[in-house]
Amino acid sequence: MTEQTTILASANPSEADSAKEILKTRARILARPAKRDDDGQGEILNVIEFRLAQERYAVEQKYVREVHPLRELTPVPCTPGFVLGMINVRGQILPVIDVKKFFDLPETGITDLHMVIIVHTEEMELGILADAVTGVRLVPQALCQPSLPTLTGIRARYLKGVTDQHMVILDVPSILNDPKTIVNEEVEE
Length: 189
Known about the structure:
The protein is an alpha+beta fold.
């Protein structure tokens, strides 16, 4: 029996009916498909915004498992420069990449204030280092440009879009499915 069922069973009949109605209403609201905003601008992206090298970035929340403080990072030999190391999150060992190095952005030192955004797809899961996580936003997809005209090469390939407020939305599946993120090197003895 779940905790909610136990509460409903122990409540008097009128309170139980009221609680059931509240739960049904909540379920209906949560089950609704992605809504269109009042301006008819299309699908709304739910994103987690973070900062990298004084720039605003975001990833879609559907790819985020959790946000975790950076603690006890273990460097791993024979990995590319953008792989910072490994972290242990409740018994699961995950690689952490520095998107600043991946995108050739200016680097800053790592502090205790850095956060790791754990992202996933069906095939892979890893942590992305963030200088700071600034919040959750709803972004109309229609307001996103495919990419900036000045961006070419590696960065443009990993972008879902850029908002009119200069927030770069990363394409998590493109990053996780890139062969560069899979490290398979051995040390010669």
